[in-house]
Amino acid sequence: MAQIDAERIEEDLARGLRPAYLVHGDEPLGRLEAADAVRRAARAAGCEGREVIEADGAFDGAALAEAAASPGLFAARRLVELRLAAATLKAGARRVLEGWLAAPPPDAVLLVQAERLERRELGQAWVAAMARVGAVVQARTPARRELPGWVAARLRARGVEADAEAAARLAERVEGNLLAAAQEIERLALLHAGGRLGVEAVEGSVADSARFDVFALGEAVLAGDPARALRVLRRLREEGSEPTLVLWALAREVRLAAAIAYDVESGAAPAEALRRHGVWRSRERLVAGAARRRPAAWWRARLRECAEADRVIKGFAAGRPWQVLEAVAARAAGAALPG
């Protein structure tokens, strides 16, 4: 059974090309690089042809079945890419995939790409067959505490040794945006090839790639991270963001957490409550964690504070808008503040 982390796909490919790969996960950079690695290995192994099948929610497997039955016209071997847009597949598509994996066409390598598949889909027979016949490759977003190590390892692979402080500072500057981090690392590797990278070099040459939009503030609040919430808020102020827009994004997340917490306290299953309020799958863990961490009454109190901040921003109450926003955001993220 081949279950491979996307960071280790190159090592696996060095041992030989498998008949099929599933590349999935919630990290776009990891998916992109893993799929590119499979393509390079396929070309090196003689796959001169390439077919791409875009599979939306209505995909029934017919196009894949046709590709399996139709050998390449001009190439001895080919790479067939199936790009899944949905988190689950129809029964017909699953059967076609199972059939392909039961008897892989000798002239083709299959590359299935998907974002984070639902747990129910990962338990399907076609995924088990993929792990048995080929490989299931997961692109995982590193936790924030893992980012400095990820940065240092990536720099080291490009011939640059980074101080611990430099790696931590770079990780902070890109704020978990791995695509931006990869670009900065490539640039720093060119500037400091074969040398050491200190924090001064990072400060002097790295553009601030962490785009602190208003939604990042809400995410920090839901994650219960007051330090990050304040850092995002201060950057938004520096960038000239409108307080009204910032408060809207903050209140939106507080209102959502209050609603989910209330539904769960009223007897709804967390998954049902998340579906009822249209929470995207990629945000389910974040929102559910916030609702579980505090009761609905606590979140409603934070919502009342948002209403008071709105009065200050509009000039109906005394106070400085950004100072009030800082207090509201910090408290909503879990900081213990007076008042």
Automatic annotation (TrEMBL):
One GO CC annotation: DNA polymerase III complex
Top EC class, one word: transferase
Catalytic activity: DNA(n) + a 2'-deoxyribonucleoside 5'-triphosphate = DNA(n+1) + diphosphate
Residues of the DNA polymerase III delta subunit-like C-terminal domain: 213-314
GO molecular function terms noted in the UniProt entry: DNA binding; DNA-directed DNA polymerase activity
Record EC number: 2.7.7.7
Keywords from the UniProt entry: DNA replication, DNA-directed DNA polymerase, Nucleotidyltransferase, Transferase
Source organism, top-level taxon: Bacteria
Residues that span the membrane, as ranges: none
Family membership noted in the UniProt record: Belongs to the DNA polymerase HolA subunit family.
PANTHER family the record matches: DNA POLYMERASE III SUBUNIT DELTA
Protein name per UniProt: DNA polymerase III subunit delta
Protein species of origin: Inmirania thermothiophila
Lineage, uppermost ranks: Bacteria, Pseudomonadati, Pseudomonadota, Gammaproteobacteria, Chromatiales
